[in-house]
């Protein structure tokens, strides 16, 4: 536990703890609406914001928040307008964000692409006190939106048409979710890195879905998994002297594989229970287990081999 004696590790662990709680809160909505790669697109746009921070000698974190929020809102407006599919808008974020970041960083005084490395892959030694302040403020905003409006956001992500019929401001909620996702990406970029931040938003949620069946249960388990992988990955990266982003993502993938393996028997039992026949009304209790199952035309038509 000697790593706790170092101030930079204390800051990195605080950031990892906050990120582990925050990322799944937004990720659960992105997974639900099948936009798991949205975080990647926003991360590429945030790279342009980081480069602008170097160019204008301002905080890269806050500049990344501004630019990534504008990019996320632009992508969402393009998708809602129907002028481009969601995947096309996301692709434009990918290409434009990366190209803009590389171009601008080379225009900055004394800048080079090497200065972006810690933002691309994360670094435990570069998290400053000002970064912690920004991370905590942005995380508070993300949690306020993600938890305070969870019913509305869940409804919009589940079925936009139904949410619109019920009177919810679907367009405003979609834009708010895009801004919240942008803030989440910026929160996590100092530890996880812009190119891997989407994994921390998605993998804990998918791992939690293997064992839970409700929104509340999935969210709670995903946040627990997020904290576990982010903190353990940060500590492991300190001892192995490797980038924390890659370490965190690999641990998260291992956790997902373990969750899938452990819950597979449970899923099979649930599937078998779902296939049990429903006895007709009035059948005695002792005879219910012997009621023959109705013929399945799809299965009966397949010859056995």
From TrEMBL:
Q: Which InterPro entries match?
A: ABC_BtuC-like, ABC_TroCD
Please state which protein family the record places this protein in.
Answer: Belongs to the ABC-3 integral membrane protein family.
SUPFAM superfamilies (alphabetical): ABC transporter involved in vitamin B12 uptake, BtuC
Tell me what topology the record assigns in the membrane: Multi-pass membrane protein
Task: Tell me the Gene3D superfamilies matching this sequence.
Answer: ABC transporter involved in vitamin B12 uptake, BtuC
Enumerate the UniProt keywords alphabetically. Membrane, Transmembrane, Transmembrane helix, Transport
Q: Cite the residue spans of the region called Disordered.
A: 273-305
Protein name, entry field: Metal ABC transporter permease
Gene Ontology biological process terms in this record = response to zinc ion; transmembrane transport
The GO cellular component terms are: ATP-binding cassette (ABC) transporter complex
Q: Where are the transmembrane segments?
A: 12-30, 90-108, 120-147, 168-185, 191-208, 215-239, 245-263
Q: Where in the cell is it found?
A: Cell membrane; Membrane
């Amino acid at each position: 536990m000697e790593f706790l004696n170092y101030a930079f590790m204390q800051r990195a662990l605080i950031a990892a703890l906050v990120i582990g709680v925050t990322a799944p809160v937004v990720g659960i909505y992105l997974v639900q609406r099948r936009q798991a790669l949205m975080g990647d697109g926003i991360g590429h746009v945030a790279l342009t914001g980081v480069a602008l921070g170097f160019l204008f000698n301002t905080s890269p974190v806050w500049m990344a928040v501004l630019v990534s929020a504008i990019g996320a809102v632009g992508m969402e407006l393009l998708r809602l307008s129907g002028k481009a599919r969601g995947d096309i808008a996301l692709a434009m974020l990918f290409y434009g964000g990366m190209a803009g970041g590389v171009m601008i960083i080379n225009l900055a005084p004394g800048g080079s692409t090497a200065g972006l490395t810690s933002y691309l892959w994360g670094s435990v030694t570069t998290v400053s006190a000002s970064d912690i302040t920004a991370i905590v403020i942005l995380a508070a905003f993300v949690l306020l939106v993600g938890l305070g409006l969870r019913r509305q956001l869940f409804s919009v992500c589940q079925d936009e048409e139904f949410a619109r019929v019920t009177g919810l401001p679907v367009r405003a909620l979609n834009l708010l979710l895009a801004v919240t996702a942008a803030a989440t990406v910026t929160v996590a970029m100092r530890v996880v890195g812009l190119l891997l931040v989407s994994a921390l938003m998605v993998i804990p949620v998918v791992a939690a879905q293997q064992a839970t069946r409700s929104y509340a249960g999935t969210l709670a388990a995903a946040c627990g998994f997020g904290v576990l992988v982010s903190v353990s990955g940060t500590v492991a990266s300190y001892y192995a002297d490797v980038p924390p982003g890659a370490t965190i993502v690999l641990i998260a993938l291992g956790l997902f594989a373990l969750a899938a393996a452990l819950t597979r028997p449970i899923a099979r039992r649930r599937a078998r229970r779902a296939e049990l026949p429903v006895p007709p009304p009035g059948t005695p209790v002792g005879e219910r287990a012997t009621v023959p199952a109705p013929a399945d035309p799809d299965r009966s038509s397949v010859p056995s081999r």
